[in-house]
Amino acid sequence: MNASVTSRRFRCANRSLYFGMMLAVFAAMVYTLATGRLPELWQQLIASICTIITLLWGSFYTTLCMEVNSEGISRRIWFFHRLFFWSLLRNVELSEFDLNGIRHCSLLFIFSDGTKIEISSHLFPPDDVQELRDDLRAYNLLPKE
């Protein structure tokens, strides 16, 4: 890859929904504990555990950020950041298919250390993923149509 790669940032298309669900579950747990609707300790424990699991699940998707730039692909989740350099890229696999009239696009980046990074329209905005696909074709990392 050369230095003129268009820098792109990918965030989950439904991250607002995930965040809203996290807030709703947390608010429901606080409400039920504050009003005494869960009188037994085991009920309170289960509600707390389920809330923590929901917060972890939702925060994974709300903080997930993939960035493609001239250095490589960086992945950020929670407070963790990792950069995968283009020089270590071994292969890029493209998967495209129609499902219920919707065009899906998935790019799987395989690096020399065996790491696989997927940027897919299942998580990210489809138009953004397709623009990245077109950029990769322009840089001859993917075959032309």
Biggest sheet overview: 4 strands, antiparallel
Strand order of the largest sheet: 1-2-3-4
On the 0 to 100 scale, the average pLDDT is 90
Overall number of strands:
7
What is the helix content?
25-40%
Order of helices and strands: EHHEEEEEEH
Computed CA radius of gyration, to the nearest angstrom = 20 Å
Distance between the termini: 20 Å
Helix-and-strand structural type: alpha+beta
How many helix segments? 3
% residues in beta strands: 25-35%
Shape estimate: elongated
List unreliable stretches of 5+ residues: none
Task: Describe the structure in your own words.
The protein has 145 residues and is an alpha+beta fold. Helices cover 39% and strands 32% of the residues. It has a 4-stranded antiparallel sheet. Helix 1 (15-35) runs antiparallel to helix 2 (41-63). It starts with 7 loop residues before the first strand and ends in a 7-residue tail after the last helix.
